[in-house]
Amino acid sequence: MYTMSNSDISIRNQSMDSSRVQMESLETAAKMLEKHMMLEKHMVLDSNYASLYDKMRIRFNKNCATVSGSSELDYPRGAAFTNIKQLVPVNKVPIPPEIIENFKTQVPSKLEAKAHIDHIIAQCLASPDILLHASVYDWMISNGLTDDLIESSKPSLEKYLRDASWFSASCSKVCLTSSSLTYILPTFINALITQEDSLAQICIDNSRNVLYTRSELGLISVYDLYERGQGFRSLVSLSEEMIVQQALKFHITLQKNYLKPIVSISAIEARECLLLGLVVTCESGTRLYFNAGFTPKCQRPSTLTLMHVRLPPGFTGALPLARPDKVNLVHYSRGNLVMTTAPTGIQESIWLLSSDPYAFHTSFMESQTCLIMDSKPWVLEEVGSGATTTAMCTKEEPPLVVRQHYERPAKYVALGPHGVEIYAKLRPVDLLAQLFKDGNGPESQSVKQYFQAQSEDQACASCLILACNSNAQNITISEWATRAFFLYGGEPKVSPASLQDSYTSPFSPNVISTPRPVQPGATFLSTTQQPQQDTVFSAKHNGLYLYVSRILRPLWTRRVVREVGVGELDTSVSLLEVSTVCSHLQAVSCFLENNSSILPPSSVVKDITIVDDNTLYKTRLQEVYLMERKSLEALKQFIGQACQILGFWRILCEHHFPNIASFKIDQDYCATVSGSSELDYPRGAAFTNIKQLVPVNKVPIPPEIIENFSLIQSHSSMGLFPEINRAWLAVDNQIYIWDYEHRTDISFFDGLNNTIIGVGLVKPKPNIFKSNVKYLLVLSTIMEVVILGMMVPEHEPESTGEGQEEIQLVKKVLYSIPTDGVTMSVIKGSSMGRIFMGGTDGNLYEIKYQRYCELPIAETQVPSKLEAKAHIDHIIAQCLASPDILLHASVYDWMISNGLTDDLIESSKPSLEKYLVRCQSLSQFSLDHNGLLWKYHERHGNHAAAADILMKMAKTPGNNVELQERAEFLAKALMCMRSQEAGVMGHYMHELQDLLQVAGVQKAILAAITDIANTTDNPELQVSAQHAIMSLNSNLYDVTELFTNYAEEFELWECKLHIIELAGYRDDHLIQSTWQKILQVELDSCTAEDPNIVLGIVMDKVSSLYNKYETGSFVFPMDFLVYQLEYISCSLRASPEIVQKSFVSMGVPFKSLVTIYEDLSKRNSDTWAQSGDPLHLVIAIGYLAENFARRHQEIPSPLRKQLAFKLQDLLTNCLSTLYSKTNVDQVVQWLKDIQRDIGEICMQG
């Protein structure tokens, strides 16, 4: 018998291990290939959406335009989600006061101005900066100061004059649209044969390099800039009348006034539609879509053909909620039309028409939103939109529902006379988040309707976007989205019909009843392993695959390397793109780890022992559960491996990929490093009747600013630079530029001699500047066009997508071109750095500029503040990148000691919070460190913690904080608690509000006692006042302590009244006695001899307190005050007219006054006789009736008639009183005349 040796056993074991490893590798490879198939399948399903061209039902190569907008399905409404909260105001940001103050300065005399200018020139020329010298010389020549220039003895002047000839030829203006005949014919003949029509708008399609223009009379022209954007060719022009005639051919019943005038044109880029190039918007809101000759194979323009007429809401059979009319401003981008309307007699509105909610539909359907605006805007721009990664691989991008996890919500900024209004457009996932908030969870009926309308697969994918975003601000929404994912995600299903089929594969994707034909290039494991029919995976499973496929979509079909030179390779995927995709995948991986219950149990029917009719179905169901479990396990493994690969590629990007690629690499490997073939893009989900515009910000402009502008300006204009998130204001020859959201980076330029007519911001041509000039500011006046530079620091902070770039306006004029009598009012730049301008003569001009050779900077030049700041920031960033916590603490100490607290709180390092907390404990609530700590919490979204620190700072006793600062701490704490994230602790907010109100009373008491200390001659009272001032500044007191220890002790009657109202203490005797003291103090302090003046001073005090308290406040007893004031008036022998007239001027209603005087007339009349004038009240009532007769038109008709009858009765009683007296004939006749006038009012009704 043969016995196996140890070596034979070892060899056999090694063979078995090798076979096992080989089988496991093959199984893993098969699973990965199946995951690739599944992801590609979802990408294909995600790409089955109708393009804009297909939705319009346009037939290619057929000269027949289509019409939409007249059917109820074109603008559906009344379906689901009607309870969604649609408008969320955030905050208000006023215009920086620095800009306002510059327009309030007085104009100096010529002599003072000349001396001031000479002083500034001398200071500038004393600087070693040669660039600054050149700027001064440019300014002196342009302002005619040549004599002063020649007197300068600076060596830099000779260098400047040598280069002057080169600079003068570096820029020129070329008319692109006028023919050579215009240069031959005289000017008066050109004026006779051409119609005066200036250019009103220029828009550029940078994806195709096509330029469109619109004139004031509606002439639309098309120009080809050639494929690389370096040429120019005029193609075709269509007048407004020609466009109207074309449209009427396809819609005979449409009226002409709905097709003109044309108010805006907008380019349609290739990423939105390959076969449409321009959309024209009319004043009625009608849109006209044109093709500029584009075909699927050729994207060069050749003509302009009307393809589709889209009617605005209001043309359907159903009665519309509203209809756009008098459209004045329009912005169109990526299928979203935003327009402002100003119908006659109706407040300004802003409209949004968007097809994003209906991406899956095959017809052209749009949602509509209409909001009321504060005022008529002057400018409408889009800012802040766009993906965080680069554009996707195909020419037409997929709908927003597919790419929304990579894009921020689009924002629209409207700038008008009342300031800036900012609106945000909600993404589909934002709508789901809003439904969670409104329903306080996922169990609401609106969330169920969302899943039904979008389909469970799509809705689960949207839930994953929210569930995987579990930051501190989104934790509640993330939990609700996770619950909705499991609540409505369902379970895998099997149909009894499938029980007759044979089962041939242990794994298959989600299967439809009719298998889809195999696409070209598709791969399958084998032809026999077809998906099992009627086997349906759960929506949770499909939603996960759908979301993962959307995350990987931007990189799935792209080559990750590209050849930049002979034998030189570089990555085609940026570090930001890889990091973004990797972070999303890691979030999904964490979601799967934290929610392991998503995997179905490995056995759902393992206890079956009895064979009956249901056994086969239960066995089949168990197989389906096992299939889904294996699929999800494989997906989890695939995500882990994808994160490893992307993490490796991120390391390559961080360490300068060209250097790594310069090592010897197999060329065959380089050729295969790519994704799969291109696929079509997806359809989105559908839901109806949801308003998608959310006002984010409203920035008011104070009316006094507008008034100042109207007094000093000859020409003013405002606008926005969406490229840099800045607003600009041009008044006369000055322009101001500022960050309208953060009120920072305020720049201005006033070096022009003429009024600014046109303003534009363009990117410069590549490699045109040696320095870091990133933008060109183009200013047009009547006499010249001036180009300035905008610089960005070389050491830019790392962009996060949310921060603002630091922009510096270089006030040196780079180029200056005379206008030759043609005013340029429209300025537009192309992506290639070309500058186009529209003239008032109707022609299109281009500004040609050459390479700018900047003057060398002296080696001894002291760095500018901007450069020094960038250098310091770079050193701080390097220090904080170290893991040494002690080094971090040293840096924080240095930053605090050097006043860099604003930069300090911007840091997001975890060590900063620990440092500030430790400093707080060591310094026993130091204001410096706690001030930084609350700012840190507020900056990073922890508003509740910030409010708690602020309240403690306000309530901590001590002499190092005054009362004004304590009140500011409370106000800031209340603002923190009112923020969107922290506004949930109602009791805490009420406590802060009460503290702030009491602090306001304490401030009033402090001011009154301070006034006593400064005016009194009593030494004891002065000492008491000084002690009270120290006590009030060192702590916050409650109302009882303020009333007893301060208001009563120092006889502060107005403060007592304020405390009574704040405490809600309704004691009529106390209130009346307090008022008597207030009136007596005013009488005692008045030194005038004229009784009318004395009474007027008392009434001014009453008026100020009336305005202070709300109408109807219990501390303002109107009947008591009228009686007291009339009694004072009678005692002073003042005019009986003053009291009632003053109350009417305050705004007290006639109804209240008539009732009060009616009650006074019923009292004992001896009071007035004892005061010195028995007829005082009768005459006062007469003046009241006379005042009513003069102002009765201000009172509503029903109340007017009622008061007239009451006054007639009151005058009758007064006359009956006078009949028993002597020497009153004149008064009687006066009252009868008034009674007659009031009788006529009664007759008028």
TrEMBL record:
Main location: nucleus
InterPro entries reported in the protein's UniProt record: Nucleoporin_Nup133/Nup155_C, Nucleoporin_Nup133/Nup155_N, Nucleoporin_Nup155, Nucleoporin_Nup155_C_2, Nucleoporin_Nup155_C_3
Protein name: Nuclear pore complex protein Nup155
Domain Nucleoporin Nup133/Nup155-like C-terminal span(s) in chain numbering: 538-663, 861-1223
Keyword list, A-Z: Nucleus, Transport
Record's GO cellular component terms: nuclear pore inner ring
Stretch list, region Disordered: 1-20
Superkingdom of the organism of origin: Eukaryota
GO molecular function, one term: structural constituent of nuclear pore
Biological-process GO terms, alphabetical: protein import into nucleus; protein localization to nuclear inner membrane; RNA export from nucleus; transcription-dependent tethering of RNA polymerase II gene DNA at nuclear periphery
Ranges for domain Nucleoporin Nup133/Nup155-like N-terminal: 162-421, 692-850
Family of the protein in this entry: Belongs to the non-repetitive/WGA-negative nucleoporin family.
Compartments it resides in: Nucleus
